[in-house]
Amino acid sequence: MGVPKIANEKFEAYLIEWNKKRIKQGINMKIVYNNESRKYGIKREKMKLTEVRYMKKEQETPVWIDIFKDYVITINVQEEPICFLIKNKETAETYRKYFQIIWKISEK
User: Cα–Cα–Cα angle for 41, 42, 45, nearest 5°?
Assistant: First the structure.
C-alpha cells in the first residue's frame, strides 16, 4: 500500500521475481500505488491474480506497507531503507481495515 516510485526503482528486479512466485502459488494481491508509480502499476495490472489502484496525488505516502497473514511490514525507502516487521494478528487486522478504506478511495 502506498508504494512510492523509489521503492520500484530500487527493488524492481526482486519484485518481478517475487510476483512470478506469488502467481505460481495462486496467491491474489491487491496493491495501491502512489500516483507517481503508475508506470510500475501498469506492469502489475497485466499480471494474473493482481488488482491495482492508485492513490490520488494529495494522498501519496512516502512509506510502503505490506500486510500478509498476521504480519505488517513498513518500509521507509530512502538511501538506506529502514523497515520494521510486526507479527500480531490484531494489528494485521487493523491494517487490513485501513487498507480497505484506502482501496475504496483510490482510483483505478
Answer: 85
Q: Report yes or no: 2 and 34 within 8 Å, Cβ to Cβ.
A: yes
Range list of H helices, 1-108: 5-24, 38-45, 89-105
| Cα–Cα dist 82/73, whole Å | 11
**CA 105 – CA 88 distance, rounded (Å):** 26
What would the grid cell of residue 51 be? 488488482
Q: Is the dihedral of CA 51, 63, 73, 104 positive or negative?
A: negative
pLDDT, tens digit, 9 for 90 and up, residues 51-85: 999 999 888 888 999 999 999 999 998 888 899 99
Quick one: cell of 71?
Answer: 504480519
Q: How far apart are CA 26 and CA 21, in angstroms?
A: 9
Give the sign of the dihedral formed by CA 36, CA 63, CA 54, CA 7.
Answer: positive
Name the nearest CA neighbour of 3 among 34, 42, 38, 39: 34
